[in-house]
């Protein structure tokens, strides 16, 4: 008989998934800033701009986690709106980073349509339309 480790109960909601993904992205962005500084890519005022952009992700995560713990009813009622706003923030964050690093000449530019498609899958019909209009602009 095999021993099974107890697995803590997790809430597999879309917002939890986005928060975990944004946390992973924050760690990756901040760890990429160090070699960028030493290679001369992110120096001077660019360093502070990148650092501010990269630190806004954990701040947004902290605000969402705090709001979910303090007002779970509001969080559940407006889940689609919060999810849509969160995805719009993430898309805007990605657009700004691409603009700072070469725009459409950046080899990571094809991530945008992929991000849009995956993001649209977790939204309801009306919110998905609003999200699509935001991305089109």
Secondary-structure topology with pairs:
Layout: H1 14-38, H2 45-70, H3 72-77, H4 79-100, H5 111-121, H6 125-136
Offer a quick outline of the entry.
This protein is an all-alpha fold and 137 residues long. The protein contains six helices and no strands.
Structural summary, described in words:
The protein has 137 residues and is an all-alpha fold. It is 74% helix and 0% strand. The protein has helices spanning 14-38, 45-70, 72-77, 79-100, 111-121, 125-136. Residues 5-10 have low confidence and may be disordered.
Keyphrases for this structure?
137 residues, 0% strand, single chain
| Structural class label | mainly alpha
**Terminal-residue CA separation:** 58 Å
In total, the number of strands is: 0
How can the largest sheet be summarized? none
Q: Radius of gyration over alpha carbons? A: 18 Å
Percent strand equals under 5%
Order of helices and strands: HHHHHH
Tally of DSSP helical segments: 6
């Amino acid at each position: 008989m095999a021993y099974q480790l107890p697995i803590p109960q997790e809430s597999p909601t879309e917002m939890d998934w986005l928060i975990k993904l944004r946390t992973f992205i924050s760690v990756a962005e901040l760890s990429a800033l160090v070699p960028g500084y030493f290679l001369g890519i992110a120096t001077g005022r660019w360093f502070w701009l990148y650092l501010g952009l990269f630190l806004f992700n954990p701040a947004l995560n902290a605000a969402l986690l705090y709001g979910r713990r303090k007002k779970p009813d509001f969080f559940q009622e407006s889940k689609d709106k919060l999810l849509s706003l969160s995805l719009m923030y993430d898309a805007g964050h990605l657009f700004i980073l691409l603009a700072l690093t070469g725009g459409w000449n950046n080899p990571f530019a094809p991530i945008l349509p992929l991000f849009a498609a995956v993001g649209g899958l977790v939204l309801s019909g009306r919110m998905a339309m609003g999200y699509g209009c935001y991305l089109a602009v």
